[in-house]
Structures are given as C-alpha cells and as structure tokens.
Specification:
By secondary structure, this protein is α+β, with helices and mostly antiparallel strands. The protein has 9 helices and 13 strands. It has 2 domains: 167 residues, Sandwich (Jelly Rolls); 76 residues, Arc Repressor Mutant, subunit A (Orthogonal Bundle), CATH 1.10.10.10. Helix 2 packs across helix 3 and helix 7 crosses helix 8. It is globular, with a radius of gyration of 19 Å.
Length: 246
C-alpha cells in the first residue's frame, strides 16, 4: 500500500535527533488521507499542535480527561476499541482499527467517554494525537478537511450499522466468515493464490468482536481448517480459496 511504503521509507531514513520528531509528525500528517487537502503551512501548524507517541502491544491509549479530551490518528499498527464496562472473560470489542483510522473523542465535545478504552494490538504502534480544542480550530480554518472528517465518521457509523445487522441476521459461523472476509479486504496480502493475514488477534479478540465465546471461535476455525478453506497458526492465517473469501 502506498501509505505503508512511504512510512517505511521515512522510518529507514537517517534523521538528526533534534529534528526527527517534527519531521516525522509532518510526514505522518501529510500522508494521512484526512489532512491531504491542507497546504504546507497548514500542515506545519497542525504538526506543531499534535503529539506523536509509540505505543506497545497491550498498552492502553488514553482519551484525555473531561475538558481536555484527545482525538488520535493511527498512523502505524493496529488498535482495538473495547467496552470498559465488560469483564475480561467476556470482553466486548467495539472496533478493530488499522492505519490510517481515527479514534478518541470523535464528537469533539470535550467529554470523556467513560465506557470506552483503546489498546494497541501490535508492537510499535504509532499515533499522532490532538487536544480536541486544537483539532476544532484546524477544522474551522479548513472546510475541505471538515468534509473529509464528516465522511470518515459517517463510514465508521455505517460499519457499526453493518455489524449490528450481522448480529441480528447471521449465525455465529456466518459472522466469523464475514469478519474474516472484511479482515482480508482491509489488511490481507495476496501471495500467489492465497490471502495471508498477520495474526495479531487472539481467539478471545475475535470472539469479543463477533459476540460469541472463545471456545466457539476455536471450534469454527478448526472446522474451516478441516474443510481446507484456511490454515492458521500464532503468526499467520492463510486463506486458501480467494474466490470464497472475496
């Protein structure tokens, strides 16, 4: 993907420590689809207002505090959004995000979301974050970015509506197959006649996303493996019939 290739080039580039943070912030924002309409000067102003942070697998990502909430731009890695009121054994996963998604106080109201938390799923996850007040000022000065933001939030709402429909109309096996199909479309790599997924999700993560038990996910994955539709281990999932998984 062009976005990921550009990231790799920058990460491999030698930068002086004093300028690395500013250059990387500018680069990440310039290559994020939502900010692509900004002029160079506006991008520099946005970069000076944001903070860049590397988050490690299993680390929680805060949303700030009431009156000083934050919105995060995921520029590298994967993040899961969970319902903090659910217990560890039956964790409810609201969404699984890949770059270049956004999360945090999406309503831009400065109100803390008490029942939601974010957790990095991959090592060296990188986020650029803004205080909501700073991000609102950026939007006010850039009408095209307002449109991009509205489109992004709308697409996230549509995704949630589709998940709700799946819960109502599909059984557990069909929900798992739909989940794997969407995962393959958003994050799969085509290698020959296979689609390969980096397996950064546990069976519990998948269960939390499709609203079932870990035992059911394990049983259904074994069933799909026995039928020859996929192979999986701790690191990868290989989808053996691209026609079925498209």
């Amino acid at each position: 993907m062009p976005y990921q290739k550009s990231l790799t080039k920058l990460l491999n580039k030698s930068l002086k420590p004093a300028t690395m943070s500013e250059e990387m912030k500018y680069f990440y924002l310039r290559n994020h689809p939502m900010l692509s309409s900004l002029t160079e000067q506006k991008l520099k102003e946005a970069a000076s207002a944001c903070k860049i942070k590397t988050v490690y697998r299993g680390e929680m990502i805060g949303y700030g505090e009431t009156g000083f909430t934050r919105i995060h731009f995921l520029v590298k890695g994967k993040v899961k959004i969970t319902d903090s009121s659910s217990n560890a054994e039956n964790e409810l996963i609201k969404d699984i995000l890949t770059e270049p998604d956004i999360f945090g106080d999406l309503g831009l109201e400065g109100r803390l979301i008490n029942d939601e938390c974010a957790e990095a799923l991959t090592a060296n996850t990188i986020i650029c974050s803004f205080h909501v007040s700073d991000f609102r000022r950026i939007l006010e000065d850039n009408p095209m970015m307002v449109l991009n933001y509205a489109k992004k939030v709308n697409s996230k709402l549509q995704r949630l509506e589709n998940r709700h429909a799946d819960l109502v109309f599909l059984d557990t096996k069909d929900r798992l197959i739909r989940f794997i199909k969407n995962w393959a479309r958003s994050d799969g790599n085509r290698i020959g006649d296979k689609i390969v997924l980096n397996n950064y999700l546990t069976h519990s993560d998948i269960a939390g996303f499709i609203s079932t038990s870990r035992q059911s996910v394990n049983m259904l994955l074994n069933e799909l493996r026995t039928s020859g539709l996929l192979c999986y281990n701790r690191k990868h999932i290989e989808l053996n019939n691209p026609i079925v998984w498209n």
